[in-house]
Design a protein that fits this description.
The chain is α/β, with parallel strands linked by helices. 47% of the residues lie in helices and 14% in strands. The chain has a 7-stranded parallel beta sheet with strand order 3-2-1-4-5-6-7, sandwiched between helices. The protein is globular and about 55 Å long. The mean pLDDT is 97. The structure holds nicotinamide-adenine-dinucleotide. Nicotinamide-adenine-dinucleotide (NAD) binds next to α1, β2 and α6.
Length: 259
């Protein structure tokens, strides 16, 4: 299927590895002019070169912390008028809510709720004027089914979800869509770090924790960031203009509900 987005401009946040990178790879393959960001210059530059080489086109990069005002300004200076915005940032740390003070909550809200909202605010009006825009927020399956140790994520991402549910209905008539992709377990560094903390807390080995998670998933495997990227690219395509304000789970069927 031709996704019809060749030559469109995309800003893909937090994309030197993992799910963001999967999205950048899929969009670059479709001929999109992709700008990626991540914090470490050497890593983001290398990722851009690798993604570009695989897609046969130049991929831009900017080294910045997207959760800061300066970082967002740098990303937007590098890609001032994206047609496609993929919002992503590192997830909050796991833990027990008794240990989280106001600062911990503000950090989580900044990274996983207010940063995407700021980037949407900076880019969406121009999308409306151009009559095309696709915004995809990488959130988490925790929005549908809270994850015990990830209370900061459960809370901050639900706040973002509630906000964009309203905004998505205001802009879809201009062919601007906002949707959320909710990853279950995908094989990335983030997942491996979560296993490490679960293993430590439960007195188990990393491999025991990993195998238990695989066994518990109906697909009997973890997701591949390339699968995640393909779903993102479809949501960004010309064919997806009637999909608005949705929360789409990619979790191998792990969420047990019928709907
Ligand atoms: P990852 O650790 O593999 O990759 C994260 C990427 O974001 C890296 O490129 C990193 O450099 C970049 N990054 C992190 N913080 C940044 C910042 N402040 N500014 C700029 N770049 C930054 O993680 P991932 O697994 O791809 O996860 C992406 C998001 O999806 C996270 O918010 C994570 O919590 C969430 N998530 C992941 C899973 C999973 O199974 N992998 C499941 C649910 C939710």
């Amino acid at each position: 299927m031709d996704l019809g987005i060749e030559g469109r401009r995309a800003l893909v946040c937090a994309a030197s590895k993992g799910l963001g990178r999967g999205c950048a790879e899929a969009l670059a393959r479709e001929g999109v002019d992709v700008m990626i960001c991540a914090r470490t210059e050497t890593e983001v530059a290398r990722a851009a070169a690798e993604i570009g080489a695989a897609a046969g086109r130049r991929v831009g990069w900017v080294a910045c912390d997207i959760t800061t005002a300066e970082g967002r300004a740098a990303a937007l200076a590098a890609c001032p008028a994206p047609d496609i915005l993929v919002n992503n940032a590192g997830g909050p740390p796991p833990g027990d809510f008794h240990d989280w003070d106001r600062d911990a909550w503000i950090r989580a809200l900044d990274a996983n709720m207010l940063t995407p909202i700021e980037l949407i605010k900076a880019t969406i009006d121009a999308m409306v004027v151009r009559g095309f825009g696709r915004i995809v927020n990488i959130t988490s399956s925790a929005v549908k089914a809270p994850i015990d140790t990830l209370g900061l994520s459960n809370g901050a991402r639900s706040g973002l979800t509630g906000f964009v549910a309203g905004l998505a209905r205001k802009v879809v008539r201009h062919n601007v869509t906002i949707n959320n992709l909710l990853p279950g377990p995908f094989e990335t560094d983030r997942l491996r770090a979560n296993f490490a903390s679960l293993a430590k807390a439960g007195g188990k080995s990393l491999e025991e924790v990993r195998q238990a998670r695989i066994n518990a998933n109906p697909a009997k495997r973890f997701g591949d960031p390339a699968e995640f990227g393909a779903a993102c690219a479809y949501l960004c395509s010309v064919h997806a203009g009637y999909i608005a304000g949705q929360n789409i789970l990619l979790d191998g069927g792990a969420y047990p509900g019928t709907f």
